[in-house]
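hey so i finaly got around to running the thing on Helix-turn-helix domain-containing protein from Cryptotermes secundus. pasting the sequence first so u can double check i didnt mess up the copy paste, my clipboard has been acting weird all day
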Amino acid sequence: MEDFEERALDLAPHKPRCWFRYVDDTFVIWPHGPDKLQDFLNHISSINQCIQFTMETETEGHLPFLDIDIYRRPDGSLGHRVYRKSTHTNLYLNAASHHHPSNKQAALSTLVHRARALCDQDSLHAELVLLKDVFKKNGYNNRQIYRVLNRRPNISRPEDKPGSVAFLPHVGAIFNRISRVLSRHIIKAVGLPPYKLSNFLRPVKDSLGLRTPGVYSIPC
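ok and heres what it spat out for the 3d tokens, dont ask me to read them lol
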């Protein structure tokens, strides 16, 4: 892809102001008008017939890119915040579900970490207020929400790491008692979530696998 990009941009009669790619998603700022933008799209799609591009342009000052909503501020600069599709339900691991408390804590901490990583200073407060409401709708109480919103990053040290790890089914108080016994022997217990209904059902699709035996190669 790096070789493709270099050739495509070198041969382009008009070049974007910036070109940022993550895997197969590219963010571009184009200063030459919509007509030349369509010409540029046709150009990069003509370099290799196996590599074809589609395009999504800014709408009402917003452009989603990966999990980020990039928006245009009144002064013309760009801001960024968390992006959610219109079909997003805000349903996460419920507080009443039969999972280890650390699993529930991790679900909330991940969302808070994402907010702080993706939001600019203008958008962070509104995102945290939204997450607080989302956590309440998923059954978490004020104490749990306060703890996750005010938690400091955990910096682990080599001496803090356990000697071994045991993966055990999470069965309420039994798991907690076993965890305390194992911790005395420097063994960390990790609770496995219960089986879902899909684990007991046969898959509805047949596994394709490799259709014919042999050595598979990808020409470069």
